[in-house]
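Section 3.1: Structural characterization of target chains.
Under the original work plan, the team committed to producing a structural model for every single-chain target entering the pipeline before any wet-lab resources were allocated. The record below documents one such target. The sequence was received from the expression subgroup and is listed exactly as submitted; it comprises 458 residues.
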Amino acid sequence: MGPTWPALLRVAGLIGGVPAAALLLLLATGADPAAVGVGLLATVLAALILARAWLGTLAGLEADLRAAAEGRVVPPHEPLLPAAARVAESAARLTRSLAAREAELSRLRRADAAIIEALPDPLLVLAEDRRVLRANAAARRFFGTSPGEGPEGRTADTAAFLRHPRIAGAVDRALAQGTPQSAEAVLPVPVARDLSTQVIPLDPPLADGGRLLVVLADRTQARAAERMRADFVANASHELRTPLASIIGFVETLRGPAAGDAEASTRFLAIIADQADRMRRLIEDLLGLSRIEMTEHQAPQGEARLDALARDEAAAMAPILATRNVTLQMELAPATAVPADPGQLAQVLRNLLENAVRHGREGGTVQLSVRTLAAPEGGLAPGVLLRVADDGPGIAREHIPRLTERFYRVDAGRARNAGGTGLGLAIVKHIVAHHRGQLLIDSTVGQGTVMRVWLPGR
């Protein structure tokens, strides 16, 4: 857009005002009017031309500077006034320099964002009102959200985390004192997580208003490993003592009084083999339980056809069913658990079926069913439901809350004679918790026991 007439006339008056006044003065002193008129006309025209060129040059310089401020690059062009060429070249250099700096800043911002996104620990950026402005990939995974759901993650999860008394206290102190704060907290749901949190104030604030950097370190696995090492030593030393003492005693007998007695050797070796097998199963269950507890706080990945797993485990149970003369009734509808670990859910089925067969009535019936819940039912949300029921002696109500404890037995002698390790339901409980499911136990003395497992799925 060219210069406006008022601006053009003002600048032309500044340029041609003095020569025009001199010509008018000459006319007043008796100079030739024709010559003065020609001079005055030439002065006005020259002033208008020079004013237009000057205003056009200034407008071009203004456009170049505005482009530089906006980060745009303007193609080089010749100014209307040659004297302004150096100024135009300086403006062009400034434009290129600012554009290069902006490009470098953009590259650094992208690099910083990539570094933060790749950090293995969850990281949140909070505004002064404690609103979540940004979250890296680890934080989105931790709070159970995907990148498409927004930087703040699931509102309920992040709000619950920030409302925790210790976390909220650390945030308040960081804002009030302007110094980094730390807090240790345990989040109980959906499974217990042991967190170490650092709250770092940002001064000056970030461009988007970020005032606090919250860095989470999930210590759940490390703390669980410490507890499991202590539990393993305590439990293993207690539970292995009896079979180990039996093996040592029978070996000493075979070396001493029963040396050369073929009948006693055969009988004692069978007992030693049974006790060794019991120790093997106990160690395997302890190690399996430790592995499950190590990853219990992390949701599984994948999916599992629960009805197909039930058929496979039922077929594998055929020898035990035949030994106990137990009839297995199955009612399996297509059902898929998601997310799920098929190997772990197969172990749940195996442990529940073994419990029902070994501790149920000899010659009795065990029912195995799998179905989907399309709508809420009995306090359970939509998902898939696994049910194992027996018609055995049942369990007294006071024992039910403790059935999933390690090595807890309602009848210790009967459980050992049945070949159990006392860890089956503890393993089931931790696998179900790992899958964010529920384990429900109902039992009536004299009528039998019903084990139900609800899992998210379809």
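The chain is about 55% helix and 15% strand.
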